[in-house]
Amino acid sequence: MLSFSKILGRKTQGRKTLGRKTLGRKTLSRLLALGAMCLPLAAPAGAQTLTMATQSTFGIDPHFFFNGPNMAAARHIYDTVISRDENSRQVPGAVESWRAVEPTIWELKLRPGVTFHDGSPFTAEDIAFSIARIPNVPGNIGPYTINLRTIARVEIVDPLTVRLHTSEPNPLIPGQMTNVFIVSARAAANASTEDFNRGRAAIGTGPYRVVGNGVSPTGMRLQRNDSYYGTKPAWSEVEVRVIANDAARLAGLLAGDYDLIEDVPLTDLSRLRREGRVNIASRPTDRIMYLSLNVATDPLPLVVDGHGQPLPVNPMSDVRVRRALSMAIDRNALVERVMEGQAVASGQLTPEGFGGYDPAVPVPPADVAGARRLLAEAGFPDGFGLTISCSNDRYVNDARICQAVGQMLARAGLKMNVDVTPSTVFFPRIRPARVLLPMHFVGRSFSSGDATYVLSTSFHTRDVPRNLGGANRSGFSDPAVDAVVREVMVRMDDGREAAVRQAMHQVQDLHVQIPLYVQMSAIGTRRGITYTPRMDEQVVAVHARPAQ
């Protein structure tokens, strides 16, 4: 048995690498896109270099900042403890099997013969080290610790067998382990986040290895790992370029500068499909987009009266106000008009196909008159001033959605202010435990596969020692809800699904988080290249293949 401290050595040193800027003026970028349509497309790329244009900057320390762009980059280089396919199913990878040998013990069997990029063998010690490193990455604005909540200790049975001992029964261990990346205990023993981003410690078992100077704000270069145990990637090299501006990415695809781009502008999808000059692959994802309401009883500086003065109470601490906000929003209109039909309206905080989703729950219709009545009943017949905050470069059409939601709430009598900032500003402002924003728009991916992830991270009272409520940005706390959450989290019997659904009904009726829609991904490729989109939205080069 190895302790975390012995496996880890000293704590890592790191720095934040989050950030990007939106490029170019909107008008100019549109002109670029239109001009590119007149250019001939270059010949399809051969199986040598694939050039990908992504929207967001990223880091390649796979334990720093738990977000989609970082995970997509990491999947090229590292394996996760348990692998996840494009349909978010748990599949064998570097770990070929897993099972619960007891309610609080999960046994993992490693695939024999797997090696790291430097030729060293992959063993149980590397899994133990990786799990131990995660809580010790300093300055982490979005740590991966949420996936380790119940792991009490890691037992190395032999070089190819690991046992995860949990503090309580946890049926979500396999799903949580699809988010935990494996690094080399030898290469990363004293490595900082900077060492990873420079490429010095970025040694994985994945299909590609990083070359050159690691990652920069403009992207990274990858080379195929010829010793990879899995299906051989089609491309010997991959160039990942960060192009934040949607129109600039599309212009580059049409001009032949890029072979693959993520987040094709929704306004162009119909035309692109009709013209057939590029391939478009799209699908619903596992990401629910929702509004998070700050329900703290303390006054909030951005909740004001008709004269712009802070209110002495927070109106959103009243469930009637929160229900009114939900009723004022026309989800179908958001999907049809803002998202160009490339989303699925939802009245649940769980996407279809995941544990806790209830097919009997309809999409709630908009009812502006009913919203006004509820606001009056709660003591706000003339409404109040409210700010909605969002990013303008993280989610598909995020700024436009915020503007539309602001207009819908204004029709219910609220004096709305829409606060749109780059993700580098937005995400630090919504760090749990210190959120002062009254309402913000954000998305959540369901990588763990079950709604108890939402219950334990967003609706349980913040409890840092037990790693509960780690994503609770609303200030919500209810001992009765806490008890329900803790009860369903540990269930491993046949009644588990019904219990999870019931718990989700309970928290959804509180309207602390207001679900809007399930986001869809749209990937564009040059003709001659096909791409299979992932349900988790992560754009990974191994899913691109030359067309047959």
TrEMBL record:
Domain Solute-binding protein family, first and last residues per copy: 91-462
Under the heading Pfam families, the entry gives: SBP_bac_5 (PF00496)
Keywords (A to Z) from UniProt: Signal, Transport
Q: What is the lineage of its organism?
A: Bacteria, Pseudomonadati, Pseudomonadota, Alphaproteobacteria, Acetobacterales
Chief localisation class: periplasm
Compartments it resides in:
Periplasm
Q: Check the UniProt entry and state the signal peptide residues, or none.
A: 1-47
Organism expressing this protein natively: Falsiroseomonas oleicola
Q: Which family does it belong to?
A: Belongs to the bacterial solute-binding protein 5 family.
Name of the featured protein: ABC transporter substrate-binding protein
